From TrEMBL, chain B:
Annotated protein name in UniProt: Tyrosinase
Native species: Streptomyces spiralis
InterPro entries in the record: Di-copper_centre_dom_sf, Tyrosinase/Hemocyanin, Tyrosinase_Cu-bd
Signal sequence segment: none
Claim: Nucleotidyltransferase is one of the keywords in the record: no
Family to which the UniProt record says this protein belongs: Belongs to the tyrosinase family.
Length: 182, 288
């Protein structure tokens, strides 16, 4: 199984989003690039909202502290976002569509506005750079898992993959590096 | 003349001192942080399109074998008597066992922030400031046994379960395979939570702190853990005479794993060496 294969990921990623969804805020930006893309975004939003309802009925494990809604307006990059305060940290999860039809898009996750690098496992679960030896069902759960392991006062350092993808591609046979990195 | 890697519990006081001194020396020179960076750089997960040289792939064992050899070479340039000891976590199972002594790795982190405050790698001594990490934390962290929700180290029988598998690895050569020595040892299980962490992976989790993340090399126990993992490969070979690294040849162009894993005769980046060339180490080192 290869990463970045579609909008289905959106449902996978959020359909199981945990109880904290009740306190997350979903929003869309107004940077429409065309009818098709806009339509897709609306679908994504609906899925997010629908999954929020499901999540309220079926609270999941993973969050042990109450979260509260975040005030303010989301004006970062990306089409759809939800965010929450978890154990005193601001987690923001964004789904960004790619322009020009080059694949479906990718997740971006930040913790306290620092990017959290995520990786996809072949079984569809997610790993974070903070916790490389356990995978989670959704990017949000992976972000919470990372927060659980962050010591007090510690902030993420931006460990962007940098030249790695290119380096490996150059060394060994082609294939575009997947866009599932957050 | 092959050198010997020893059980960490059997090192003399002088051997412990020399090992620690060599680590602190290469850290001071900046060499150690290159190892941290390399491990971060080559961690590719199997749900992505990139080549996986180091994890979730057959080359997990030879990649880490070469990684250990490079570290050991750096240590031996400082002190030619030093070799990397191994930590048998099936025997030394507590937070007070051999590796965690005051004159070797120090103990678990303090409760408030997991900071390691004992032993030569305690931040306050000024010799072990983390430069490459997932967070901006400058000190080594550990939470031995995972205090907030305790787990146990893998048992002898769990390790045995891996060693009895007669096949090195099986398709699709990733973290989802439930057969084959490699993943049973690497430890990507099915399901969620505690039951899904096996052998190698479970040890990273038992230690906690920086050992959980991409920069796990920041904790020198990384090497003692991986020396013991490396020893299991040797034990497995002895038990299954003639069994080899698999796959012998790369998956073809139509295969989903094409270009994503390394076969027996392909070079392991970033080095100029193949799994085939790393299967027999008997002329370089042996385990006591």
């Amino acid at each position: 199984m290869v990463g970045g294969t579609g909008g289905a990921r959106v449902e996978t990623g959020t359909g199981t989003s945990p109880a904290r969804t009740a306190t997350t805020r979903t929003s869309t930006t107004a940077t429409s690039t065309g009818t098709t893309a806009g339509s897709t975004r609306r679908q994504v939003t609906r899925r997010l909202l629908a999954s929020a309802a499901v999540a309220v009925m079926a609270p999941l494990v993973g969050a042990s502290r109450p979260a509260r809604p975040v005030a303010g307006t989301w004006d970062g990059p990306g089409d759809t976002a939800f965010e929450e305060i978890y154990r005193g940290r601001l987690i923001r999860v964004t789904w960004t569509h790619r322009s020009g039809g080059a694949g479906p898009g990718e997740w971006h996750v930040t913790v306290d506005d620092r990017p959290l690098h995520l990786m996809r496992r072949a079984d569809g679960t997610w790993l974070s750079v903070v916790d490389h030896y356990q995978s989670y069902r959704t990017p949000l759960e992976a972000a919470r898992g990372a927060v659980d392991e962050l010591g007090p006062g510690q902030r993420l350092r931006d460990l962007a993959p940098g030249p790695v993808g290119d380096e490996l591609r150059r060394l060994h046979m082609g294939g575009a590096h997947s866009g599932v990195h957050a | 003349m092959a050198y010997t890697r020893k059980d960490v519990g059997k090192l003399t006081r002088e051997e412990r001192r020399r090992f620690v001194n060599a680590l602190l020396t290469i850290k001071r020179r900046g060499e150690y942080d290159d190892f941290v960076r390399t491990h971060i750089r080559y961690f590719t997960a199997d749900g992505e399109n990139g080549l996986r040289p180091a994890h979730m792939a057959p080359s997990f064992l030879p990649w880490h074998r070469k990684f250990l050899l490079e570290l050991e070479r750096a240590l031996r340039r400082v002190d030619s008597s030093v070799t990397v000891p191994y930590w048998d976590w099936t025997s030394d199972r507590t937070a007070r066992s051999a590796p965690w002594s005051e004159d070797l790795l120090g103990g678990t982190g303090r409760r408030s922030d997991q900071q390691v405050t004992t032993g030569p790698f305690a931040y306050a001594h000024g010799n072990w400031t983390l430069k490459e990490g997932v967070t901006d934390g400058a000190f080594l962290t550990r939470d031995l046994g995972r205090s907030h929700d305790p787990i146990q180290l893998p048992t002898k029988s769990e390790l045995e379960w891996a060693l009895t598998d007669p096949v090195y690895d099986v398709a699709p050569w990733d973290s989802t395979v439930t057969k084959g020595f490699r993943n049973k040892l690497e430890g990507w299980g099915t399901g969620r939570g505690s039951a899904s962490w096996l052998n190698h992976n479970r040890v990273h989790r038992w230690i906690g702190g920086v050992m959980l993340g991409a920069a796990s090399v920041n904790d020198p126990v990384f090497w003692l853990h991986h020396a013991f993992i490396d020893l299991q490969w040797t034990r497995w070979q002895r038990r299954h005479r003639g069994a080899r690294y698999l796959p012998a040849t790369p998956p073809g162009p139509g295969n989903a794993q094409h270009g994503r894993i390394l076969a027996r005769h392909q070079k392991l980046p970033p080095w100029d060496v193949t799994p085939d060339e790393l299967e027999d180490m008997s002329r370089i080192y042996r385990y006591a």
